[in-house]
Specification:
Layout lengths: L2 H14 L4 H4 L9 E5 L4 E3 L5 E3 L7 E7 L7 H14 L6 E7 L7 H11 L6 E4 L3 H12 L3 E3 L7 E3 L2 E5 L4 E4 L1 E4 L2 E4 L3 E2 L3 H15 L2
Parallel strand pairs: 4-5, 5-6
Antiparallel strand pairs: 1-10, 2-3, 4-9, 7-8, 9-10, 9-13, 11-12
Length: 211
């Protein structure tokens, strides 16, 4: 706990008494992130037609999303926000991004490269990934428990979440707890469409980069 937090808690005790500390102290523990399961090993091809595995992210903090380039709904906004995250940590060699296509049949390395250029993805460690469809879906549905799949009845032909996953330097999914009244609930993933949660994500990336 940082010095300012100690000062704040001392102030609480002086003003409200010791009884107030258990209810309020959680608000000063923002540098304690929840740890979830480890990301499974993966092997995909990036926009430069090069093999990318877990080793590319060794000792790096990174963010994972699932998208597809022809997505007519949430993906453009997701990647606008991902560019904001890129710009926040631009030039930091310990940070990276993995954007995994759930439409690998159409999203070839060439298509992904053009998409990355169009969206302003210039971070060296931002990989746009494609691979075997069964591997991609297993990675999403089993590895992260973030649903992705084909559905001809929805716009764009695919279903997927708009959530971003934060991964620490040891390969574990990390996230924060959110205070809701008397309860603290882990969110596990960050809503890639919500400006508030994008700000949370930036703050939590900073925490993990310092670990």
């Amino acid at each position: 706990m940082k010095k300012n937090s100690y000062i704040a808690i001392t102030f609480i005790i002086l003003i409200f008494g010791i009884w107030a500390v258990p209810k309020i102290i959680g608000r000063f523990s923002g540098d304690e992130l929840m740890k979830f399961e480890k990301v499974p090993d993966f092997e995909f091809t990036d926009q430069n037609n090069e093999l990318v595995t877990n080793e590319n992210f060794k000792n790096k903090v990174y963010v994972v999303e699932f998208f597809f380039t022809s997505c007519p709904t949430i993906c453009p906004r997701m990647n606008e926000n991902m560019v904001k995250i890129q710009n926040e940590f631009y030039g930091n060699p310990s940070f990276g991004i993995a954007s995994v296509s759930i439409d690998p049949e159409r999203d070839s390395p060439e298509v992904l490269k053009a998409y990355a250029r169009e969206k302003g993805a210039t971070l060296k460690n931002w990989y746009f990934l494609t691979g075997d469809k069964s591997d991609v879906y297993s990675f999403s549905n089993d590895g992260f428990r973030l649903y992705a799949g084909e559905n001809k009845d929805v716009e764009g032909g695919f279903e997927h979440s708009g959530l971003f996953a934060l991964i620490d330097k040891d390969g574990y999914i990390r996230s924060r707890t959110v205070v809701n009244g008397e309860m603290e609930n882990p969110i596990k993933f960050y809503n890639g469409l919500d400006e508030k949660e994008i700000q949370w994500l930036k703050e939590d990336i900073n925490i993990l980069l310092k670990e």
